[in-house]
Backbone:
């Protein structure tokens, strides 16, 4: 455990507050029904998650990144759409019903199809699957005639320090745009004008690499054009968000908060140049501060809240957590707020009731991680050694062991390989969006998990990466790293070309 993080772990275990709430935030894993670890288990976990020293052969269980929940690799685009490999047959029905809800196309009110009633009035997509196509990652528009269905723009404005700020230390106060809300919706139902049109342009530049090689990067510029409700507020900050892949989310949720917090080193006490910080967020579900895990800046604590937020802001569907039938329509958009909604007594007064939210959450929690490929290939093994020697595991933590969970057998006590510490890191000016989100500054991002990254083209039909899809290859994604990862980036630029190729081959095997 890094010394600078002892206070956070004390808060986790019920001690003094480390994040500034007057009564002390509760950073325990409130969303999980946990069976505590024994001392013997803790010792075994420390041994099995230690970094390897031998790269001549794969580690034990390395081919099972999702533990017993891992599934065999499909050779088609369904590779990310399988239920947890250790799921009992009688639980598969809930997964399939959740899949149906995930694929559902919602329609605007009033409608004769009451089960799908309530779209919008403003929205980014008609269903979850439209953004997370085949449960994979989204992409920016490929050209002027390609819509922005799987990418959208978040928007916020600076706020006074006390505005809408839970009692969390280092919270950066922002507010939604007073007219456009928290994100720009580029579709509207009949009678509602879309808020704006997503626009992106690129400027390409070359990066020289060792061995006479070069790489071309593209620097994006984003805008919200054809604004339907007047100009954005003064100081409005825009940030693009590509829909992330959906695999392994339940396993990430089951990582003990204590284990994530133990990796944080906000003052870089060990002097390695890596200063990961925990994203402490305010949970609307539990009405308390919790560890953020989900989203590009780890702005959500639980999968249920993440799912409900997507319902509300991406599709305009009300749930018990976000009950407004008008979704992200602001008070300034009075016509939008007055539009008919799809809430009904049959659904508990919402457009998607608690059962629907639970089923979507169960589905999202159990999308399985596919097995590793070619883990024993000599080039892959060399690439793994390069990955470790370059220092990538300082942020892309390879292994965790999940909680013992009474009610979630699929995620319970699994050795998993997500390659993420789940912390916020300063990634430098090149990747900065200059839009704070909670504790995350405009230069900080959560470490993205790497499992399944080599199957992106098979599932999603493209190879674009990072939070906005600017990188068109894994090499480009690495070359955009800066800030805390500048040293690692420089090593990749200067290493022998065969080692660089082996590193990419290793990442493709994940």
Residues:
């Amino acid at each position: 455990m890094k010394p600078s993080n002892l206070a956070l772990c004390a808060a986790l275990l019920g001690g003094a507050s480390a994040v500034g709430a007057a009564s002390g935030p509760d950073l325990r894993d409130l969303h999980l029904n946990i069976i505590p670890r024994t001392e013997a288990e803790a010792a075994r976990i420390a041994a099995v998650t230690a970094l390897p020293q031998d790269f001549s052969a794969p580690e034990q269980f390395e081919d099972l990144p999702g533990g017993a929940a891992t599934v065999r690799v499909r050779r088609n685009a369904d590779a990310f759409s399988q239920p947890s490999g250790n799921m009992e047959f009688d639980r598969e029905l809930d997964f399939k019903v959740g899949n149906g809800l995930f694929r559902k196309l919602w329609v605007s009110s009033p409608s004769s199809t009451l089960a799908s009633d309530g779209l919008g009035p403003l929205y980014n997509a008609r269903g979850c699957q439209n953004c997370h196509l085949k449960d994979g990652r989204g992409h920016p528009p490929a050209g002027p005639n390609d819509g922005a269905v799987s990418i959208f723009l978040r928007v916020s404005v600076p706020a006074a320090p006390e505005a809408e700020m839970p009692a969390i230390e280092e919270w950066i106060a922002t507010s939604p745009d007073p007219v456009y809300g928290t994100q720009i919706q580029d579709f509207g139902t009949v009678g509602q004008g879309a808020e704006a049109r997503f626009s992106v342009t690129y400027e390409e530049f070359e990066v020289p690499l060792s061995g006479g090689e070069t790489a071309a990067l593209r620097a994006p510029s984003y805008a919200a054009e054809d604004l339907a409700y007047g100009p954005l507020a003064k100081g409005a900050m825009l940030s693009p968000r590509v829909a992330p892949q959906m695999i392994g989310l339940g396993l990430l949720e089951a990582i003990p908060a204590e284990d994530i917090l133990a990796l944080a080193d906000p003052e870089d006490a060990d002097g390695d140049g890596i200063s990961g910080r925990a994203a402490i967020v305010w949970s609307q579900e539990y009405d308390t501060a919790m560890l953020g895990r989900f989203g590009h800046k780890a702005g959500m604590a639980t999968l249920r809240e993440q799912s409900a937020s997507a319902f509300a802001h991406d599709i305009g569907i009300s749930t018990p957590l976000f009950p407004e039938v008008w979704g992200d329509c602001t008070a300034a958009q009075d016509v939008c707020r007055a539009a008919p909604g799809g809430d009904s007594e049959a659904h508990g007064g919402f457009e998607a009731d608690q059962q629907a939210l639970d089923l979507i959450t169960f589905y999202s929690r159990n999308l399985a991680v596919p097995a590793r490929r070619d883990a024993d290939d000599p080039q892959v093994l060399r690439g793994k050694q390069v990955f470790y020697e370059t220092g990538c595991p300082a942020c892309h933590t390879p292994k965790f062991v999940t909680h013992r969970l009474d009610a979630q057998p699929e995620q319970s006590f699994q050795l998993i390989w997500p390659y993420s510490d789940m912390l916020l890191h300063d990634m430098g000016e090149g990747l900065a969006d200059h839009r704070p989100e909670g504790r995350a500054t405009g230069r900080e991002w959560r470490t993205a998990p790497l499992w399944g990254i080599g199957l992106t083209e098979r599932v999603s039909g493209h190879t674009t990466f990072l939070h906005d899809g600017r990188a068109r290859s894994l090499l480009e994604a690495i070359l955009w790293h800066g800030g805390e990862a500048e040293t690692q980036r420089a090593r990749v630029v200067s290493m022998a070309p065969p080692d660089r190729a082996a590193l990419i081959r290793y990442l493709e095997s994940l």
Q: What stands out?
A: Residues 80 and 135 are 6 Å apart (CA to CA).
